[in-house]
Design brief:
Layout lengths: L3 H12 L10 E2 L1 E5 L6 E3 L8 E2 L2 H6 L4 E8 L3 E8 L1 E2 L4 E8 L7 E5 L4 E6 L4 E10 L1 E2 L2 E7 L8 E11 L8 E5 L11 E3 L2
Parallel strand pairs: 1-16
Antiparallel strand pairs: 2-5, 3-4, 3-15, 5-6, 6-13, 7-12, 8-9, 8-14, 9-10, 10-11, 11-13, 14-15, 14-16
């Protein structure tokens, strides 16, 4: 498992250190546009603030999120994220705040280009979920999660984070991007099941 950004994002989200919200309206499906060029580079595990990178490096990082979509239906939650460039070694984490909770209790983490796992905030895995990944320019990752994996929530909010080692063989440097900023995470509107 990746440690730097994913653990930072998961810990920050789960402990409520950075909690943002975007509106209070109810909807079934929504798309959130994300600012481009806001990737942060972390030097190592101890670097919790990171350094913003220039636009060209942000694009090349393989983690720069352009937008993400969530569609909460009667039987499934469909999520997807679009990237400026998505690389095959990028880890993507979707966080879910269920039934009005202020902190996320479930996370969808991609394992590889075909599979992801839904975890509880205590680290217990709930279920495996197939994913579809398209790498390269305008790359995407998408998944369709059975609502049972999420505990059949009547409403939820979604956020997304991505991370990738700069050069795993030579350093612990990691690129990271999160919906919103590291000071205030952007969540979808509250989505009721359709």
């Amino acid at each position: 498992m990746r440690r730097t950004l994913r653990l930072l994002a998961t810990t920050a989200l789960a402990t409520g250190l950075v909690v943002g919200a975007s509106g209070t309206a109810f909807a079934q499906k929504t798309t959130v546009k994300e600012a481009s060029g806001d990737v942060v580079r972390f030097a190592d595990e101890e670097d919790l603030e990171g350094t913003s990178v220039e636009d060209a490096e942000s694009r090349a990082s393989g983690v720069d999120i352009k937008s993400f979509t969530a569609d909460h239906t009667k039987t499934r939650l469909k999520v997807s994220a679009k990237f400026r460039v998505l690389k095959d070694d990028t880890f993507v984490t979707f966080a879910f705040r269920l039934n009005g909770q202020s902190e996320p209790t479930r996370f969808l983490v991609n394992v590889d280009e075909e599979e992801a796992v839904v975890y509880r905030s205590n680290g217990q895995d709930v279920c495996d979920v197939p994913v579809t990944v398209t790498t390269g320019a305008n790359g995407t990752i998408s998944a369709s999660i059975n609502r049972k994996c999420l505990g059949y929530p009547s409403k939820l909010r979604v956020a997304v984070a991505a991370d990738r080692y700069v050069n795993e063989a030579e350093s612990d440097e990691t690129y990271g991007d999160i919906s919103g900023t590291y000071d205030k995470i952007t969540w979808t509107k509250s989505l009721t099941r359709g």
